[in-house]
Design brief:
CATH architecture of the largest domain: 3-Layer(aba) Sandwich
Distance between the termini: 56 Å
CATH topology of the largest domain: Rossmann fold
Largest sheet: 6 strands, parallel
Helix content: 25-40%
Strand order of the largest sheet: 10-9-11-12-8-13
CATH class of the largest domain: Alpha Beta
CATH superfamily of the largest domain: P-loop containing nucleotide triphosphate hydrolases
């Protein structure tokens, strides 16, 4: 392996003038020493730099391995920190797309963006390593979520679609399965979707429930080679099943994930949580505002469990909002629009 590329940073952002709005105008220069990373850093036709300019209201001029950033002092500092982190991600072999850049821009408003990605001196880096990729936090709430996954026995992850609740939980589960800290990975969902009933669907029982579990298969295949996923399913190391299949079991030495938990009843949730066994971790994911079971929100086992257990030792609760959506930015705006209607 070659030497890991490093960057040279001018740490000062020197005020130049005062603009009409009273904002200090600033300049900052960043120099990167690995020119092979400049293409993916800048993006095709400098698309990544244009994204930074449009989002932060700065001007970016690239010349060789140097980038000059101009604009309001705070925006220049955020653009500089985001570029540094983008470069670090590429140097570590991680992906860098428009969604990742959008998330880094959002997190650049945090005072310790470098520490968030790299880890503070007294803490290990915040990341999850799997067979296929390394996952780093892409929103401020994901930082708290990853820490809670490493610390708490049972974690409630609440919030809208697109915030990474299930994906990060599956990645953490895969990481622990690979490392040997757990012996099994159990993924479950209630087989309830918008009032449909399994009995109305053709096919065997497995063929009926598999469509409801497809998002869990997708997350697994994104973290492990598909042939390894299938091999571990065949051996019983990975189990994907509806919540009804959990009844009467004790889930020891396992990482257990319940997805779409807002569609459980109080009785189902109690049954699921009491399956917890020795040397296990459990993550319960759901959006309390998207309940599809008869009776509405009041009958949701997720809301009931959070009310009862949020302050109990060993439990962690992470609440995501539309601001944490890490899919296309328009998804966050859609979530905000629906949440704002007061429904």
């Amino acid at each position: 392996m070659g030497r890991r590329p490093t960057r040279k940073i001018d740490p000062t952002v020197v005020p130049q003038t005062i603009n009409d709005a009273g904002m200090q105008h600033a300049k900052a220069e960043v120099t990167f020493d690995n020119q092979s990373l400049l293409g993916p850093l800048f993006g095709q036709f400098d698309a990544n730099l244009v994204q930074l300019e449009n989002r932060l209201g700065v001007f970016i001029h690239a010349r060789g391995d140097k980038i000059l950033i101009e604009g309001a002092e705070d925006s220049v500092a955020r653009a500089r920190d985001t570029l540094n982190t983008m470069y670090d991600r590429l140097a570590q072999g991680q992906d860098l797309d428009a969604g990742a850049i959008e998330s880094l821009i959002a997190m650049s408003n945090e005072p310790t963006l470098e520490g968030i990605i790299s880890g503070e001196k007294e803490e290990p880096p915040i990341m999850i390593r799997t067979r296929k990729k390394t996952i780093v936090p892409r929103s401020a709430s994901q930082i708290d979520y990853m820490r809670s996954l490493a610390r708490d026995d049972i974690v409630f992850a609440l919030g809208p679609a697109g915030t990474g609740k299930t994906y990060i939980a599956v990645a953490q589960a895969v990481s622990q399965l690979i490392s040997g800290s757990v012996q099994r990975l159990i993924l479950s969902r209630p087989a309830v979707e918008a009032g449909e009933k399994l009995g109305f669907l053709p096919g065997t029982e497995k063929e009926k429930v598999d469509p409801y579990l497809r998002p869990l298969y997708d997350a697994l295949n994104d973290c492990m080679p598909p042939e390894q996923v299938q091999r571990r399913i065949d051996s019983g190391e990975i189990e994907i099943a509806p919540i009804a299949f959990m009844r009467g079991r004790t889930l020891a030495d396992a990482f257990v994930i319940l997805d779409e938990a807002q569609n459980t009843t109080r009785e189902q949730m109690k049954m699921f949580l009491t399956r917890f066994g020795q040397n296990s971790r459990m993550v319960v994911c759901g959006d309390p505002k998207q309940v599809d079971i008869p009776g509405g929100v009041r009958s949701s086992g997720l809301a009931d469990a959070v009310d009862r257990l949020e302050r109990v030792e060993g439990f962690g609760t992470i609440r995501f909002t539309a601001a944490d959506v890490v899919r296309h930015p328009i998804v966050g705006r859609i979530v905000e629009a629906y949440e704002g209607e007061g429904a």
